[in-house]
Amino acid sequence: REPESKRVRKFFSPTTTNKKQIHLCVMLLVLLALVGCALGCDTGLIASRVGTAQASCGVANLADLFPGDESAPGASQFCASSCRSAISSLVRVYDDFCPDTAEQRLHRRIQRDQFECNPPLATCSEHLYNFLFWESSAQGLSCSRQLTAARGANATSVQAAYAGFCAGECGRVIQSLLAASFAAGCGPWSAHLQRQWDFDRACRQSGGTYCEPELLGNAALLATARNVSTPSAVKNATLTQLCTPCFTAHLSAQEKFAVALSLDTSDSELCLQQDSSYCLPLYESAATTVSTSGYTDVALANYESIVMCSSSLGRCPQRLWAHRLQRTTSAAEAAVYQSKISYSCLDVSSTGALCGTKLSSLSRGFYTTSNPGSSCTPTSVSGQCVNPNVCQTWPTSACPFGCSARVSEIVADFGCCFKSAKLLYTAVVTNTTAVSEAFGRVEYLSSSCCSSVSGSCPTPLLDACGLYAEEISLNVDVNVPLSWIENNVAAFNAEFVKDVSRALGLVVAGVQVSARQAKSDSVTTVIFKVGVQHSVEGAQITSTLVSLLNTNQVSLSNVASLYEQRCLPGVNDNCNSAAGLQVASFTMIFAALAAALLM
């Protein structure tokens, strides 16, 4: 007996007539939803990722990468994780407004075929066949034409046209097929989720209005909003038009399918707001200030930490970094974002005295300035270094008293910021030599002049600042039954923490679920703790959450994805029907903030 993944791909060989018909039908639905232009399309990156995909999939040309007959080129690698990942990385580039080409259509088709790899159960293949067979039937083709007509309808008739498809016989059949597939245990399978996402995208509503017509009509707005060169005033005006309830509902739904279907969710940060201001224009304006400052290496990283921590930006930078941290597949990028979230805006005194401000002179070379004709190194003690002036020349190998006393003042002023800043700059500055040189002089003076027996400098450099000296406790209500959560507690907690940390601009290590209580049959109060430096930061995070709740910006998309893959009313006994999944629409948001108490 052949492995299930190979049997599915062989049965649906592209050499089979009905396979061609099926994919023409399916691709018609997909391609009609793709609206694009050349703006933002990185052809160089596409070429690079094509080469990576060819190597990962074992073919000289991706056009040779077909499933089915095991003698076909690339057949053995078609369902391999490395090949699938490479194809997904390639296809994500096309989402940046690349023009539609035959090559792009081929690559998207390959990805869609790969979604059918590795069904979780043998019966899932049968349900996939039922869906594909229906799509190629007379009724299925008629439904495809009906959706095509709806997408081309004029403004006065478009909503009725969508209602005819989504709420009519076509929608009922599709939902029935999806429900049967889900009931058979195929909910987590990417082939099932792709078809769920196709229907959800076409038939999602907000306030009783079908959203896809608006989304398809806003391609120009989206291009302007994505363009980093768009002036702040224009971008703000654009986002005001773009960030409608339909668009935000679409983004929330997209995030639920992102991991399984390798969707690009970078648009999820477009509509982030701080009070009444959009975060992205604020952040990009600050980033321009940093990039045009003339600083490099450590000085640039230090200046960024000061600019990005301005009170006018609120927690926008941290929230954007948290979004990008959860999106990236690069370990190096993840380390950068995690360090920025953790260390950029440290304010150990809770008075606005940022660590970045304390380190400004060090980052700009104050302690490595050389006297004329000399070269200041960390261990220089013969007049080569200008600063500190009392430490320029040591008569003996021992640190002079005056130098020791001055180093004590420097160490005390830096406090825990010194080592925290070094952790940050080590992560974000690619020039490692520059980091070593910037910190090396003070490190040498501290180790040489300060000790527990020194009267003038009794304390060496402190350890890095504690990030979680205090805790705040927050309560929120989520639309999931407690009985379901308790049956999936580890998975729920993990996804909930991801959602909370992304919403508030935190790293997941700083958030912990502490308790869960049933508020009703379908609503659970989740109590979670957030580690903070001090009460001022705790108040800022609490205020941010209240503001997000008031503007309906907090999406529990990871929890929603988990819930939808495991729960369907009438199918899973652990699910409460009042809180269950509607196949075409499911939005999970924080319902209320119950308390914010310092522990």
Q: Treating each run of at least 4 consecutive H or I residues as one helix, how many helices?
A: 27
Average pLDDT taken over every residue: 84
Overall number of strands: 8
Show unreliable segments: 1-39, 576-599
Shape: elongated
Q: Beta-strand percentage? A: 5-15%
Task: Let me know the largest β-sheet.
Answer: 4 strands, antiparallel
**Helix percent band:** 40-55%
SS-derived structural category: alpha+beta
N-end to C-end Cα span:
60 Å
Q: Radius of gyration from the CA trace?
A: 28 Å
Q: Largest sheet, order of strands side by side?
A: 6-7-5-8
Question: Which properties best describe this structure?
Answer:
four-stranded antiparallel beta sheet, 27 helices, 8 strands, disordered N terminus, 599 residues
Task: Characterise this structure.
55% of the residues lie in helices and 7% in strands. With 599 residues, it is α+β, with helices and mostly antiparallel strands. The strands form 3 sheets. A 4-stranded antiparallel beta sheet has the order 6-7-5-8, covered by helices on one side. Strands 1-2 form a two-stranded antiparallel ribbon. Helix 3 runs antiparallel to helix 4 and helix 12 packs antiparallel against helix 13. The chain starts with a helix and ends with a strand. The relative contact order is 0.07.
